[in-house]
Amino acid sequence: MKIGLMTSGGDCPGMNAAIRSVIVKAKKYGFDVVGIKRGWMGLYNDQLSEINLDEVSNILHLGGTILGTSRFDPFKQPDGTKKILDNIEKNKINVIIVIGGRDSFEVAVKVARLGINIIAIPKAINNDIAHTDYCIGFDSARAIVCDCIDKLCTTAFSHHRVMIVECMGRDAGWIALMGGLAGGANAILIPEVKTDIELLCKQLHNRRASGKMFSVIIISEGVVLPNMSKNILESKDKSGRMRYDRRNTGEALARYIEEYTDFEARVTVLGHLQRGGTPTAYDRIIATYMGIGAINAIKDRIFNIMVAYQSNDIYYIDLEDVLLNSPKLVDLALYEEAKLLYDI
Ligand code: F6P
After folding, report:
1. How does strand 313-318 pair with strand 117-122?
2. Residues with Cβ within 8 Å of residue 198, at least 6 apart in sequence
3. Ligand 1 atom closest to residue 245's alpha carbon, by position in its atom list
4. Are the beta carbons of 91 and 33 closer than 8 angstroms?
């Protein structure tokens, strides 16, 4: 059995932990693994090399991915299908493991339909992939958000300011909700719930009136605020993917707050800091179990599935079903409950 292993899409902490466990478990069953460089781009360009135990020693704690990554879609190239199939055949690959997010899985499904065996491992700091409680990278991202809110609280307190923290997440507010809850944000704004700016300003006034001189608001990049132009809302990157960062939701909100209140507002955009650095223990552990799960699936000849984590266990979910039901949005009951803690 020869496995092609790639990491694809936006990087995140925990990818290396998954690579490491795939290799260690594969070797136990005597499977060969070839590393595909920079996701689907590496398969298209035939950039592959054998990957052994030595290469995965001492990488557990490293952020990013030793295999490199890209947001490349081979099916957007005129010769994409041919090159992918030729390179799979040339390298004698029997199954491809993709550690990726929704866009990478879209490509994986198309490859599977060509008759190639696929195993998907979900990574996404946004935690927006359906049928899994957890995606690799999410815990590290929310921990970074929490840490930044802790830091911003001290300066907000000193200056009696409203601090706005803009986080990632695309259409799903998981990072804002969980990072904001952990950091004790005084308001959490997510794309799933329409923002009521008037009400928010009232809440800021009420907090001030009760003697709390500062506030921290976390806003997700995917929130739509009044008067955002069509151009901004539809801005795309080179690969045709929506640029949510172009919305500058933090800045837009700060302008409204300064217009409707007499509070001073400052914005911190956390950006790619949320994808950097050392993975948390939780990310390392889940990534490790998902990597093992992927190899167990191959041993049992279960293909075209995603390795999911649900209620403390590993499950195999049909990959097409995952895409049908994604993105996984925030549970609104959880969001409502979080509001209880806004004024503390
Ligand atoms: O999908 C993860 C994500 O981090 C999004 O939240 C964000 O909009 C996007 O990636 C940024 O992508 P890039 O690295 O291409 O700027």
Report:
1. unpaired
2. 260
3. 8
4. no
Between β-strands 48-50 and 32-36, what pairing exists: parallel, antiparallel or unpaired? antiparallel
Q: How far is the CA of 239 from the centre of ligand 1 (A)?
A: 12
Q: Please say if the pLDDT value at position 326 is more than 90.
A: no
Q: Tokens 């946004």 belong to which residue?
A: 126
Residue with tokens 């955002």: 228
What is the 210 CA–ligand 1 centroid distance (Å)? 38
The answer, yes or no, to whether the previous bond of 78 is cis (omega within 30 of 0) is no
Residue 335, ligand 1, Cβ within 6 A:
no
Among residues 64, 58, 113, the alpha carbon closest in space to that of 84 is found at: 113
Please give the order of strands across the beta sheet that includes 95-100.
48-50, 32-36, 2-7, 95-100, 117-122, 305-310, 313-318
Report how far residue 153's alpha carbon sits from residue 129's, in angstroms, rounded to the nearest whole number: 31
Q: What is the CA radius of gyration of the chain?
A: 22
In this structure, the strands spanning 32-36 and 2-7 are parallel
pTM of the predicted structure, to 2 decimals: 0.97
Residue 181 · residue 188 · CB < 8 Å? yes
H-run or E-run covering 121: strand 117-122
Report which protein residue has its CA nearest ligand 1's atom 14. 10
Q: Return the structure tokens found at 224.
A: 């739509």
* pLDDT tens string 226-243: 999 999 999 999 888 999
